[in-house]
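Hi L.,

You mentioned the student needs an example of a multi-chain input paired with its predicted structure. This one should do, with 702 residues in total across all chains.
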Amino acid sequence: MNKPVPITEFVGTVKYGDTVGLVITNVDSVLRDKMGLDKSHRAIGIISNRTGAGSQIMAADEAVKATNTKVVSVELPRDTKGGAGHGCLIILASEDVSDVRKAVEITLDNTERNFGEVYGFEAGHVELHYTARASLALNKGFEAPIGKAFGIIVGAPAGIGVVMADTALKAANVELINYSSPSQGTSYSNEIIITITGDSEAVRQAVIAAREVGLSIAKSMGENPISTTGKPYI
Amino acid sequence: MNKPVPITEFVGTVKYGDTVGLVITNVDSVLRDKMGLDKSHRAIGIISNRTGAGSQIMAADEAVKATNTKVVSVELPRDTKGGAGHGCLIILASEDVSDVRKAVEITLDNTERNFGEVYGFEAGHVELHYTARASLALNKGFEAPIGKAFGIIVGAPAGIGVVMADTALKAANVELINYSSPSQGTSYSNEIIITITGDSEAVRQAVIAAREVGLSIAKSMGENPISTTGKPYI
Amino acid sequence: MNKPVPITEFVGTVKYGDTVGLVITNVDSVLRDKMGLDKSHRAIGIISNRTGAGSQIMAADEAVKATNTKVVSVELPRDTKGGAGHGCLIILASEDVSDVRKAVEITLDNTERNFGEVYGFEAGHVELHYTARASLALNKGFEAPIGKAFGIIVGAPAGIGVVMADTALKAANVELINYSSPSQGTSYSNEIIITITGDSEAVRQAVIAAREVGLSIAKSMGENPISTTGKPYI
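Structure written out for the whole complex:
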């Protein structure tokens, strides 16, 4: 079989999480209204995936820093293909399709790196994200304060995340932004997710401390947590 | 092991989606109240499955056209056995068990055909449904206008569905009834689902256009989408 | 590889459901407030798992009967690793870590037994729980009347649960406490869950009748339901 010629809406994929990037040059006006876009949002960019949310949203954050695009919405289906967490749907918009195409490309390029801090194992996952300076995608998706250091700490099944959260908050002088649990703030995922801000080195230390305790619990359970890409970056 | 003798409540199964049909001749009155049935609903029919919703609801729509039964409720669990979509629970009711048994049988008979337009692939699915004349099950489940042509367009992961929706609305002069996304109108599934109505040929053309672009995106992703039954019918 | 030394927060695991027990000696005060704990809740115990809710909550109920601990919260993620049901996160609290550690140990010890009445099969599951005397965990998680006999009846896909519910209510003179379905009272799981109370022998008979009809439907579907542990206890 010959490889199919990609259609014009197709931008690319990422090796991890069934992540796909798409664009629409001039979105149908009825659909635009139903999606909650405004009239200036003629071109939209789409990042959609089955597994992961933090990795893609962190990546989109880099994209909106570098392009003239806006984050219209971030939605978190209960997914991960039978895993304990979320998938993700990010809609970016701009007047011009070249802007959103560039933004989608940057998001795809950055997503792979972020999977380096997603540690999967049979019973669940431990996931960390860190940036020295949050922008509009993280603000939209996780209420991150713009321009400040920001960290995301995730443990699944949820009990692992409780201990990771406690450890992070004790490890450094950081501010807790949100605490999400199966019945509140998640889409009924089996995760505790906390988000933190503060001095960049403090946020980084808190994230690292959470990672260590999360991986230790997994190992105590007899699990073998491994970085999705084999390249941790924090 | 001998094959067990089916119990009286058992009507049958469908090869796809773990779909089962059941009846209760005279539902317990306390349960009837808790289920929101009214006193005349002595007999109930049940269609329940792990994978699929459109296929079963479309099939139930044929059943209520042909029998003296009422659609009491349509519920959409987040399921598909680790897939991106929904399962389904449909409750039909009548005064007489022979009516609901007949309705359940018709539903089971029609469900298989409808799976012909469910295209599965490793990363998600593309799903289409079309009828020239919607009835009470589609009205209950999807707010379809009774007696009019009606189409359902589904793409997963959700980003595929956004492009399918845009393509459908541009392809023919149809009216958008609903746009459902992971955080609104679905049970946190990783799907975009739109429903459309209008002139029957226009609805059919919109559905076909959505199918083509959905399958093209899947192929661009390196996926191999295939009809569940091998028999597309639209 | 040497077996890792468990960290201090780790109490143990159960063979079934990816169940883990954890403790925190002195929970961070900011986290404590976000979790809705009060100031006296210095030590917390955590039971967290991917598959099962009834088994773990029933077990926690025995734990709070036997220790000076309080059930702070019971949350039900949509999980079971691609199955039709829930996972569970239970938070116990006390002033003293030795109390919560003991409670977590008792919960882990009792969870395995309860999986004896969880019957899995390819298309779904049938699950039963019974106690002659409900306590605070069942009250928190399922609104069980404290000190009374209590039963939980679960069928998946949900249609099986409808027939199980009807059969149970007809089998004995019991009171229906709750009827939960995919769109109401569950986390969009593909289950019907009913809870019942009444005279202890009546509750037991209702649970047994529900089990028989649930297993019969599964067999009529061509499924082979088997007890998770091989040791039914009701």
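You could point out the following to them. Chain A touches chain C through 35 residues (CB under 8 Å). The radius of gyration of chain A is 18 Å.

Best wishes,
N.
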